Amino acid sequence: MNTLTRRRFLLASGAATVAAAAVGVGWKDLADRTRTEPLPVGTRVLVVVTLYGGNDGLNTVVPAGDPVYQSARPDLAYGQHEVLDIGEGLGLNPGLAGLKQQWDNGTLAIVRGVSYPKPDHSHFRSMDIWQTASPDHPAGTGWIGRWLDANGRDPLNAVSLEPVLPPLLAGATTAGAALPLRGLALPGGPIGTAFTALGQADDGESALQAYAARSIDDLHRTVATFGEDVGVAQGGAAARGVGLAKGGQKGRAQAGALAAQLDVVARCVEAGAPARVYSVSLGGFDTHADERSTQQRLLTEVDQAVSGFLTRMASSDRGRGVVLMAYSEFGRRVVANANEGTDHGTAGPVFVAGAPVRGGFVGAQPSLTDLDDGDLKPTTDFRDVYATMLADVLGADPAPVLGAGRSTLPLVSA
Amino acid sequence: MTPIGERDAVRRLLQRLGLGARRGELDAAAAAGFDATLDSLTTPGPDQGAAATPVPTLSPVDRKAQDPASAQTAQAERAQLVMWWLDRMAAADRPFPERVTWFWHGHFATSIQKVRFASLMAVQNATQRRLGTGDFRALAQAMVVDPAMLVWLDGGGNRVGKPNENLAREFMELFTLGVDHYTETDVRSAARALTGWAVNVPTATTSLVPRRHDPGPETVLGRSVTDAPSLVDQLVSLPVSPQFIAGRVWTRFVSDTPPDQATLAALVNAYGSGHDITALLRAAARAPAFRDSASVLVREPVLWLVSALRALNLPASKVTPAALAGGLTGLGQVPFAPPNVGGWPAGTPWLTTASALARLNVARSLVAVGDFSPVADATAAERVDATAALLGLPGFTERTTAALAPLARMPSQLVAAALASPESCVSA
Lengths: 414, 428
Hints:
By secondary structure, chain A is α/β, with parallel strands linked by helices. Chain A has helices at residues 4-13, 16-20, 27-36, 67-72, 97-105, 123-132, 143-150, 189-197, 207-226, 257-271, 291-313, 382-393, 399-402, and strands at residues 45-51, 61-62, 84-87, 90-92, 108-115, 158-160, 177-178, 277-282, 322-328, 348-353, 360-362, 380-381. In chain A, the strands form 2 sheets. In chain A, strands 1, 5, 6, 7, 8, 9, 10, 11 and 12 form a 9-stranded mixed beta sheet that branches. Chain A has a 3-stranded antiparallel beta sheet with strand order 2-4-3.
């Protein structure tokens, strides 16, 4: 359903075998560790929000006052009076009212013009590059996976609330844990007993068949620990619809899917779960046609989910250690196409928010006239954003994860 | 490599190039032998089961229609179309065309979520069935101007002066060449070659509107093209295209492990200058790796379901509709609604904790109406083995045998649990 892209990334990056290891880790393990070794209060936690499909950055952080913007996309452009002014000639999409409040509070930073050298226009390839942090050559591991590898190899340090482990959490020796998010009512009686027994391992079976057995076992562990309503969060449960790479226009993302994931993250953080990194996602941003209404609806969903989460996090000691980072695999072309949409482009904004964040702009806004074959020229390398998250949120050396020579950005207070 | 035995190879053949054996079919096929089974499976012929499941007549009703009656009709037609295809797949006496159509549905992945009209999806489905076992060039030519495809990838709005690149890019990246085998300039040029097509929804047809078409010529990957046909001719004749198509076929029908060089060469050779899809599939089945014990595939949910329907001699439309629809949604695979243009995943992404439970729940709704008399008629002591035979499985592990044994006096529960077993999740 929502997993193809990630599967493709896994295959493309050779990480599929690594990901398989994550099935062995379930809610039970997370719950046990939360009891025995909760994160110390004040520990910083990173929440990575992936927006699949290529979110149009120019209609997210909108240069509404720029006549070039207006003339490049006459049917698609927001007027100056429509956007939420954040200064420097820029305004937030009208769907982002909650994030505007965060901006005014000084807890939202916007990194502008973020991409990488020679941006790729394929959804699948560009998302692979962002998740592996390897623009130059295909990498077998994700950036958080490599952080796990270099920092104690504990799968419970990075948790995905998505139906399938995203490649960013797959390391060479360690993969983060992918935990399910939906109501799970197990049958009782003899067939329930038999079903439980089907989850046991058997030496004589193929790897894939053993994988199927582990999924049955993990289902039972999950229900045994958390009950049948695990993940049935406010805002509608269901992992269905989460992370559609090209949904929205092409299969709509389910309302409340992101809020449901962040609700579980909030509960884990408040309980002191051992994860330092959480991965959540929303799809549907591939807006080749009729972009305005689709994107604004999606951004409103992001806004409600994220600002609700941030507000909740600001109200507890543990929550005040949370930093959220939201990105998409690329922005869109400056000029609209004939369908009141935009084709695949390059640079876009990255949002970083939370109590420890230093609000404001970081990086230069790309020029709308000095273009690279119709595309924005990036001004910031996403690996510098990652380096900042590693150094200032996770307290880790970026070099083993990203290679030497990355700079950190003034995004997070010391 | 450890080769599997002849009977298991025939079993695999019926699962991979067919849709799973019905009662008695495995024994008959094993008696005929692998080669004869492959020939008969892939040779067209009369099909009473297909004839008994005719395509439903659908009206061009907009799923997003404002008036409730139309919206309700559109919703009903969508469900009707899904149910029809499941019924057809369950009923087909010659399952090969249906199996290949299912493959192309995932390859040219188009979703009714955006297309909205079940009637357009039905037309695309019919085209994929009509052309899907023949010349890939003809199929690709039809798909690039297919009504549902043009809606899906915004081809209907791609016009001279203001191209929309969506269709051009995905046609090269996902349908004919694979990523890395073209440049951004090629994408833009191809988009211009594809300008000017319009969809007529009531007739479910498309046509070229000359004033919206950019006559070009454009250069795409070194050759001059002017329109959709010349673009597709160019793409499918590039050397990388047969390798790409062979790779996609291999992943779905044979193994997660890519073919070795010799095997790939044999596949491409069989495909040949005629872009012969059936010949490619036959070559894939004859490849040594097809008989490798390691060439296990996870069954896609729909193929798991259809195989169960065939084993239980059960039309999909006899199953409680809500249970079936909810089950497919829970399993993550609803026909005519792939998640994105890349199609559905393959392999372990289907084996989640949530889908393990969804599989059991669907299985319970199947046994409520299906025919499992070979199990019920067996003695209690023989029933576990009879269940494996009924479901076309080579057998059960000790784990599963032990888990199922206490259900021997409850044949329906026994069959349901067996359908949810790890053995049923894979095509061994």
